[in-house]
Amino acid sequence: MSSRIPGFYRKSIAQRRAAAAACSGLPQEAFAAIDDGALPLEVADGMIENVIGTYALPFAVAVNFQIDGVDRLVPMVVEEPSVVAASSYAARMIRDSGGFVSTASAPVMLGQVQLVEVADVDRAVAALAEHRQELLTRARSSMRRLVERGGGPVDLTARILARPPGPDGGVVVVHLHVDCRDAMGANLINTLCEEMAWPLAELCQGRPGLRILSNLTDERTVTVRCRVAAASLAEQGSANDGARSASTRGAEVAEAVASASRFAELDPYRATTHNKGIMNGVDAVLLATGQDFRAVEAGAHAFAARSGVYRPLATWRLRGEGDAAELVGELTMPLAVGTVGGALHVHPGARLGLAICGATSANDLAAVVASAGLATNLAALRALATEGIQRGHMSLHARVLARAAGASGELLDRVAAELADSGDVRIECARQILHRLQASALER
Ligand code: MEV
Fold it and tell me: Is the separation of the CB atoms in 106 and 179 below 8 Å?
């Protein structure tokens, strides 16, 4: 079913659940997993240590997403207003030009075994190369179930990090490259690293140091691309439109977004904020689907700096002219996510998040996460390149305050609109507007 649900934000929570159920094919009862207090204290107590309660955040869905030809609702858990609205808005423009298109690498994670006090590091690296096949066979035999599912260790590489003398003597790091299929893979990798540490140390005549996965998962990346017709970027009803056509105005906005992209490509200070806008969407989906967002954050920023300079994860270019002008966006980032294991075993909301977006594999989920990131990036750049982000933020904030002041139904829209237009977005003003509108309704 289509994820294009006009006026979704105007519906009540019950109506939104009904629409989300219809779109995702889930029964409405499934949404009980995100009711008040849906994470039982005893489950929370089993998840981490020293539990004294649970902590709730809003769970929303972004609409309009079409990814690889499939309509999807995108679950988001986030405390920041406008992330959900902005990504839905960008996804709508993108779907009109064909939606998001993704490609993903094999889900290969890296495990690191550090070897210290290696007497002859060159001989150690040569021995590792010579015994690579039998070491891989040994590694595979300790991960039979993963191998049966089509994954498992696929390579073993080594690098010299230090030569003696030095505080750790000769240091060699061995990388175990493991296809983790639909698991995020941290436990699989860490277990393998611990099992392989002594055999590797003996072969290298050294001592095992750390044995742990690397969060720089640069062999597990996803790329999403999208196009946006320039005309659809034009500001609606802009005051100084004059006689200019939507495609002319749109081309100007598209060029401003491309210029914002170039700014991020030239300046790490801007690239950091640009990437923060991407992580707004990325982290929201990661949280809603029970992923290790710290792992993805660490990997994303290390990947962004892999050239030695911190760079944007996504770039935008203007292509074509006139009515054919379009903005082309591309995001590549490492995404270590899983659709089995981790919090998904126990957290009902995370399982629902996964079901809502219909991700059936880790790569599928990575495409959804990255599309959300590219969408929030486009929405932020478009706003920054035109009216600035504060107007949109303020109108959303005005809605929050109008609701807090007690407005509902049709009055909610009117109070929010008047409050935003007044430029004085405070709760007292929302109350005054509400009282005035209520009084004038009574007089009629
Ligand atoms: C705010 O959460 C995110 C932005 O700062 C991103 C950006 O500047 O591109 C608006």
Answer: yes
